[in-house]
């Protein structure tokens, strides 16, 4: 079975280490994480409120599990900044040549 990196699309070679990234998104209401019982209860309420919307769309708002295979380079980049935050640094457009001593 061929494995490809979900981020860069590079083929992961046989015997090469790859990384499985699992992202679990869990709804939280008033600081309370939803257990299975509360989940059904809340889902029912929301479905009532949002009548007309398909339940799978609403369900995705409360719980999502995503899984990706990443190559080592992409794993490093993901792990360094998983929330894709803006980096607080100025990257120069060019590097000045070294000064002679
Ligand atoms: Zn990659």
Structural class: alpha+beta
% residues in beta strands: 15-25%
- Please state the CA-atom Rg, rounded to the nearest Å: 22 Å
Helix content: 25-40%
Helix and strand pattern = EEEEEHHEH
| Separate helix tally | 3
Main β-sheet description: 2 strands, antiparallel
Q: What is the domain tally?
A: 1
Distance from first to last alpha carbon: 58 Å
Mean pLDDT: 82
Structure description:
- The structure is a single chain.
- The chain contains three helices and six strands, in the order βββββααβα.
- With 101 residues, the protein is an alpha+beta fold.
- It has one domain.
- It has a two-stranded antiparallel sheet with strand order 1-2. It has a two-stranded antiparallel ribbon with strand order 3-6. A two-stranded antiparallel sheet has the order 4-5.
- Strand 4 (28-29) and strand 5 (32-33) form a beta hairpin.
- The longest helix has 14 residues, at 36-49.
- It is elongated.
- The protein binds zinc ion (ZN).
Features:
3 helices; two-stranded antiparallel ribbon; 6 strands; alpha+beta; binds zinc ion; elongated
Show the helix and strand layout:
Elements: E1 3-4, E2 11-12, E3 19-26, E4 28-29, E5 32-33, H1 36-49, H2 55-62, E6 63-70, H3 72-80
Antiparallel strand pairs: 1-2, 3-6, 4-5
The protein binds zinc ion.
Zinc ion binds next to helix 3.
Short characterization:
With 101 residues, the chain is an alpha+beta fold. It is built from three helices and six strands, in the order βββββααβα. Strand 4 and strand 5 form a beta hairpin.
